[in-house]
């Protein structure tokens, strides 16, 4: 479909938000920037591991050893080409390239290691209405590919690994607990929508009749 097609559906952008962990409401952390993706990743890999040894978060929080671990891996792309075509409207990009976007990601990474007051923010990965989860940013790999005459990066790939947090890392009543619980309930609701489930009883009856 042509990008100029007038009825082309609008695509929701993914994002990583930093919320205040000491609030019971959705409140952005004033000391940590949030990132809206320039382009959504083309692929997203989710890796599940069975319960095992306790995991320790960047700020020392232990994960419940009885819970399944989920890692989300994705690659983000940033490109300043469109902004550089209109330099009068994008002076910051002309002067700094993609350094501002990279600085946001680095700030998000560093925010997890904050100590004292205020406490470190809760990082939320948003990727559509069916995936809003609190995460740790486990790793951040930046590949700078093209540079302007001042050696500012103007095309970049960023490989991210996010670790989904579980309920054991939050106090009941906190915004982190509410978001995590809401995500788990949403997954249960979605599982009931799987069309094959309506045939399960009939399939079981057929199997049992075959046994007898």
Topology of helices and strands:
Elements: E1 15-19, E2 35-36, E3 44-49, E4 69-79, H1 81-84, H2 91-96, H3 99-111, E5 122-126, E6 132-147, E7 153-164, H4 175-192, H5 200-211
Antiparallel strand pairs: 1-2, 1-5, 3-4, 4-7, 5-6, 6-7
Radius of gyration: 21 Å
Mean pLDDT: 87
Runs in which pLDDT lies below 50 for 5 or more consecutive residues are: none
Percent helix among the residues? 25-40%
Task: Please give the count of helices.
Answer: 5
Order of helices and strands: EEEEHHHEEEHH
Major β-sheet profile: 7 strands, antiparallel
Tally of domains: 1
The secondary-structure class comes to: alpha+beta
Alpha-carbon distance between the two ends: 55 Å
DSSP strand tally: 7
What strand line-up does the widest sheet have? Answer: 2-1-5-6-7-4-3
Percent of sequence in beta strands: 25-35%
Overall shape: it is: globular
Task: Summarize the structure in words.
This protein is 25% helix and 27% strand. The protein is an alpha+beta fold and 212 residues long. The chain has one domain (15-211). The chain has a 7-stranded antiparallel beta sheet. The chain is globular and about 75 Å long. The N and C termini lie far apart (55 Å). The relative contact order is 0.17.
